[in-house]
Amino acid sequence: MAETIEVTGLRKRYGDVRAVDGVTFGVEEGEFFGILGPNGAGKTTILEIVEGLRQADEGGVSVLGESPWPRNPRLLPRIGVQLQASSFFERLTAREQLQTFGSLYGVPANKADEMLELVGLTDKADVRVERLSGGQAQRLSIACALVHDPELVFLDEPTAALDPQARRNLWDVLRQINTEGRTIVLTTHYMDEAEVLCDRVAIMDAGQILRLGPPAQLVRGLDSPARISVASGVLTVEDARRLPQADEAVDDGVSLTISTRDPSAVVAAMAAKDALTGVQIHGATLEDVFLDLTGRAYRA
């Protein structure tokens, strides 16, 4: 497939800090691409360079066959951008805000109500933007990024500040617009979000891409044991540790958890002992991959 975004040898420094340090990747047309990393990894800087909001020190960037820098007016109608921190026109209602954004691209005023419905803000249409909650403002920001039907959408932590229901509803919206053929580039701190939505992810730290690929492929490449949990008391810890292929067993008084790299052998042995009450099997996740690559130290 054609590449919508091509990034080659990208570098950006701020004094002695290498915010982006030799990054190369491509995003295919129609792909849902995620950029993951701890705070300060360089995710937002990369987005801002690709969007044409910031100039790179070195490297090449092509977006939809065009250079985004200097600010390219030919690209503006073709891309939608939701920034990490959004600013709205003061004293406008949610509907008026969308109508104003849309008017910059020649979008009919009635498109605003369609977008409000899409992000679940129909009942807030006549509420001024400064009176919206943080989550509602976040959803309005996403609607503004989509109001002109862009073919490429950049979303910088779009579900931050959203409650679980709004977050899952937004996932449905993003899946829908991606299914319609739009290319989406997403940054997020939610690993489950990236695992569910993204075709491929790039995991970054210290300005570099550490691993890139489909989430399931990255998870399969991690040498991590599966965890099998059953109700506490079904087996003793000693009996659990004697099961074939069991590596370790811990009972916290609620659940007995067994670590193993061969869960089928352990489950079969537990079934033979009629010890599968409340059984749950947990494999590695994208979060495990992320922590394996970036570590567990606190980040500012």
Automatic annotation (TrEMBL):
Can you say what this protein is called? ABC transporter ATP-binding protein
Q: Where in the cell is it found?
A: Cell membrane
Q: Which UniProt keywords apply?
A: Antibiotic resistance, ATP-binding, Nucleotide-binding, Transport
Q: Can you tell me which family this protein belongs to?
A: Belongs to the ABC transporter superfamily.
* Limits of the ABC transporter domain: 5-231
Q: What InterPro entries does UniProt report for this protein, alphabetically? A: AAA+_ATPase, ABC_transporter-like_ATP-bd, ABC_transporter-like_CS, ABC_transporter_ATP-binding, P-loop_NTPase
Q: Please classify the protein's predominant subcellular localization into one broad category.
A: membrane
Q: What is the lineage of its organism?
A: Bacteria, Bacillati, Actinomycetota, Actinomycetes, Streptosporangiales
GO molecular function (one): ATP binding
Q: How does it sit in the membrane?
A: Peripheral membrane protein
Q: Which domain of life is it from?
A: Bacteria
Give a single Pfam family match: ABC_tran
